[in-house]
Specification:
175 residues, alpha+beta, Muramoyl-pentapeptide Carboxypeptidase, domain 2, two-stranded antiparallel sheet, 32% helix, globular
């Protein structure tokens, strides 16, 4: 971990042993990104080129099966992750509670440019409701073929709450 990241954690009240205790490595921030879509709020969703290519293949396959996967969020910088946490702290939410649902700056898979938060036309908000959609069922069955995996299932070793919408590309998969 870099000295600046360690200092940031101190300022935010994040425990020094966070990464080790949560089995969450510090993630390298992506440098080369490509646009894959606009999310429902109009923000650009970006991924690394290889993750973007896998995403496009997966999105086409889902569409061919009548399933509409909606990208809600992709790459997120350390700076943006920090702003998200500071906003929650200013709302009076304790850091321990925040870290149950948001990875510490530096540890988010979104920093890699290989993570996507996905929704469906009927479940655009990032809640457990997504787990009851056809899109989620399709992902559970097919995402691995494209190199994507669910990062935070129930009772995951990272201590992050269940996030059925959060999928990370890790390889080229079978396609």
């Amino acid at each position: 971990m870099t000295k600046s990241l360690r200092q940031l954690w101190v300022k935010l009240g994040i425990p020094a042993d966070y990464a080790d205790s949560r089995h969450m490595p510090v993630q390298r921030e992506a440098v080369r990104l490509v646009r894959v879509a606009r999310n429902p709020d109009g923000r650009i969703v970006r991924l690394t080129p290889r993750a973007a290519a896998a995403w496009k293949r997966m999105q086409i396959a889902a569409s061919n099966d009548g399933v509409a996967l909606v990208p809600v969020s992709g790459f997120r910088s350390v700076r943006r992750q920090t702003r998200n946490i500071r906003r929650k702290l200013s709302d009076g939410i304790p850091i321990g509670e925040i870290l149950r649902f948001i990875a510490a700056p530096g540890c988010s898979e979104h920093h890699t440019g290989r993570a996507l938060d996905l929704g469906s036309p009927d479940a655009l908000e990032l809640t457990e409701k997504f787990a009851r959609t056809a899109e989620y069922r399709w992902l559970r069955k097919h995402a691995g073929k494209f190199g994507f995996r669910l990062s935070y299932p129930r009772r995951n070793s990272h201590g992050i709450g269940y996030e059925p919408w959060h999928w990370r590309w890790q390889s080229t998969g079978k396609t």
